[in-house]
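Table S2 (text version). Query chain:
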Amino acid sequence: MPPPAGLPVDPVVASPEARLRPLSELPWQRLAPLRGLLTDIDDTLTREGTIEPEALAALHALRAAGLAVIAITGRPARWSEPFVQAWPVAAIVAENGGVMLRLEHGRIRHDYTTDDATRVANAHRMAACAAAVQAEVSGAALARDSAGRLTDIAVDHSEFSHLDEARIAQVVAVMRRHGLTATVSSIHINGWIGGHSKWTGAHWAVQALTGEPLQPDRWLYVGDSTNDQEMFERLPLTVAVANIARFVPQLRALPGYVTSAERGRGFAEVAQAVLEAKLDEVAKAAGGRPHGFAQAADQSGA
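Corresponding structure-token output:
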């Protein structure tokens, strides 16, 4: 099932400087209506490739509260399979929007944005591009998880190999010369053929899972690097974990808020804020005094 057509194209208009604030300043009233969270995986839920305990606990708490979490990653589909089974997530959209994985009756279901014949043709083009990257860019090597990729290619720049900014830019240029879309994550440079992205993947997954179009103000996105900036740009409610600092000079669009902790601990901060907002909503409905109201009063000196 492909992503829905006719996606909104206008980004959220706001200057980066005006939008980047500590998560503690995010009003609980904006979090209370949320239906769920969209999140990156590498260096947002994980540290050195392993999910942090705080992030895993946060995923369980969100599911227990009835909030869906959809992970959207540049990692390959095969790499994602054990995690869609082990983690309490509604789905994983892998390869930057190219493949969606979810559990149905205990089995993993794979959906793609293209048919089999198109994927085979694209694979030949991407293989030629990968060969050109390795021939033209000194030290460039395909990511070690490449065998599990079904719709894209990835070059390692920070996971097991190191490429400086100049060589990263070279890789991106070669990919684009071959007609690929190219993005840079915290660990890899990803290239693929087609118009899909994390943004279209979010729409696709929400529609598939809920039966309704994505309502931007009902979903919060959490990310950490340059390949998250389309989400930062288009969604009204976005948060980055603290390790976004490495990429800030390269971003054309920044998240609205930033956590105090890095990686999975930062994600856990976001989850806690959302869960507290939901409790505040219940307290307000019952005529009580929301936790967020008390915080605001304390800060104002009331």
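Notes on Table S2: DSSP finds ten helices and 14 strands in the chain. Residues 4-18, 293-302 have pLDDT under 50 and may be disordered.
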